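Dear colleagues,

For the upcoming journal club I promised to circulate an example of a predicted protein-ligand complex. I picked one with iron/sulfur cluster because it came up in last month's discussion. The inputs are reproduced below in full, followed by the predicted structure.
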Amino acid sequence: MDIKLNSLDKTIVSCKKCPRLVKFIHKVSSNKRKQSMDEVYWAKPVPGFGNLKSKLAIIGLAPAAHGGTRTGRAFTGDKSGDFLFKCLFEAGIANKPYSKNINDNLKLKSTYITNILKCVPPEDKPLSNELLNCSKFFDKEILSLKRLKVILTLGKVAFDNYVKLYKKKYNINGKFIFRHGKMYLLPDNKILIASYHPSPRNVNTKIISHQMMINLLNKVKKIAKI
Ligand code: SF4
């Protein structure tokens, strides 16, 4: 696969610090899903993507087993990503309504997309030491976004973990309650916004709809001034 990586990305991609996750990535990549039998899975940690001058960061918890772990790009190649990129396109943030693979020429307007954890965990449940191990990469990614204004977290687990890391880093307390569309002004003047995760389960049960996500993205765009 052809991909341009900066030095942080390269470090992330070659990381093997969490043995359980390294093993799981290997398992997932050797038990390919039916429709991807002919593909070579990425089978490594998945760094974030987007312009480092971005004002908006969209944050998930971890790459999907047959999404990011297969394609090498966060929210790429799975149903959650299909939903997300359709909405990002409608909101004028992405140049295409889909995200298929790392060579699809997808471009984002002032937006960086990443996950708190760079490796897929079994049952989507990371252990606290894995989150701790990977937090140094996540911190560096966020710090490298010098113009960052707004952080949009997808799903309660990503929101709660983002808050946990943030509280620890800045030694702050306070209640951060997850509610779709809820906004918090953080002590470093960035704005944290919660969103439902665009998972098939949330979409099928109508917890979130395309229109709800597009409305939120339009609001986010205004706040981030992108
Ligand atoms: S989760 Fe992060 S720290 Fe752990 S192996 Fe993957 S990239 Fe390394």
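Two points we might discuss: The first helix runs from residue 7 to 13. Strands lie at 49-50, 56-60, 111-115, 150-154, 183-185, 191-195.

See you all on Thursday,
B. R.
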